[in-house]
Amino acid sequence: MSANDVELRKSASEEVKKHKSKVESDPYRLTYHHMPPVGLMNDPNGWIQWKGTYHLFYQWMPFNTDHGAKFWGHLSSSDLIHWKEEDAALTPSDWFDRDGVFSGSAVVHNDQLYLFYTGNIDGENGAEEEYQCAAVSNDAVTFEKKGVVIERPEGYTANFRDPKVWREDDYWYLVVGAQSVDMQGKVVLFRSHDLTNWEYLGPIAGSLEGEMGVFGYMWECPDVFKINNKDILVVSPQGVEAEGMHYANTYQSGYFAGKLDVNTPTFSHDGFKELDRGFEFYAPQTMEDEKGRRLLIGWMGVPDQYEQAHPTIENHWIHCMTIPRELSWNGEQIIQTPVEELKEMRGPVLLHSSITIENDQNAIRGIQGRAIELNIEFEELEDQFAIEFFQYASLSYKKGILTLSRPHFEDKSKTEFRRAEINQGLHRLHIFIDHSTLEIFVNGGEEVFTSRIFPQHEAEDILFTSLGKTSFSIEQWKLNGYTYENKFLSSS
What we know:
Layout (H helix, E strand, L loop, with lengths): L2 H22 L14 E12 L2 E9 L9 E7 L4 E4 L15 E9 L2 E10 L7 E9 L6 E7 L5 E13 L2 E10 L4 E8 L6 E8 L11 E10 L2 E9 L15 E8 L4 E4 L3 E2 L7 E7 L5 E6 L17 E2 L6 E5 L4 E5 L7 E23 L2 E11 L2 E6 L3 E6 L2 E7 L7 E7 L6 E7 L2 E6 L4 E6 L8 E19 L3 E3 L1 H4 L2
Parallel strand pairs: 1-20, 4-33
Antiparallel strand pairs: 1-2, 2-3, 3-4, 5-6, 6-7, 7-8, 9-10, 10-11, 11-12, 13-14, 14-15, 15-16, 15-17, 18-19, 19-21, 21-22, 23-32, 24-29, 24-32, 25-26, 25-32, 26-27, 27-28, 29-30, 30-31
């Protein structure tokens, strides 16, 4: 480690210790979602399983709750429930990443773990630039930086970041989110035999690429993978205008499905579909685990979307991750379901069978709590149905439209809405509540609503309303949550 790296790690550790009591006493802290030990958490990075252990790295700003010169935080787990808070994997300690170790991915090669990331130079002390860099580890705990492996090709601005790497046949491939000099968002492709020397192949998708019209000025966090022989490009475009009930957040995250030809290179694809219809979801990353599952984790936040209005700021932390989700393909679209391992957190089930509400609002005895899982199966839904969470957020269904509403973070006198069209009717809701998070899986994962919520701390009631007659069954589990071994503080 360089002297600068050692000093940055020491300063980060001191920041965690300084605010530990304040952070951990916040009633909005979570039971089964990853949060920063202090400061700001954003994009998941380097999401991988190696030698039976899951590794989740993440963007971390330990010194304040703004974006800036990010570290890579690091969590590891053998089962997705019991976690270790490892020492930071990377710090912004070198000339090529001094203003931030930005997002990237991980692969295994020759029994070593390789991290690929963007080294950020913010332009305050010279030209702005973003380099694609690598680091290597033999133990998945300590990493040796290898420096810059890809520099920006001609035709692109300094917005050139978030490398995702995968192996296909005889080559390694890498995609980068980019912005062309005419201010159009792109995803560009590189390939390599050795993970060190990379050949630029060109853009595979983007605004004004192929049959695509204008669709955003920057595409972030690309991710390419196959699912049921369908090539998928997950990406987070910026600068897409709202269109009806679509693209309602400041920036979006979603996917294209089609056929990728790495030799041309071209990606023939269908239209863009959002992965999540809630208020806070961005920069998701996937990986294939040793069971062959395609697992996704996303950031439960959106850049530039009233972040500084989150009430956790006053307790020196902000943002979290989603729960891990398994992806599948139903022949038409991606389906997202909570990973099976989460069932290990369940306490005894509280089961109600065949509840009927008609033109009324009811609480259901025992259905309450701030760290719970609900499964609701509809038997009959005549007209309108709604669930009110803690006198704060509401999920309502009417005439094929599902709407999530909550108070605006900056102006509490206003109500915000996010909507999705549910074409085949509402049949099932699978809901995860965790103090200040809400994740709603609709009809087995055809749609998902992910959001932060900040109700009054003592509120626990959940109310059900029906106009007309609604009959449903409901299950509830209290969730015990993740456990953490804090290696980060014990080793510092």
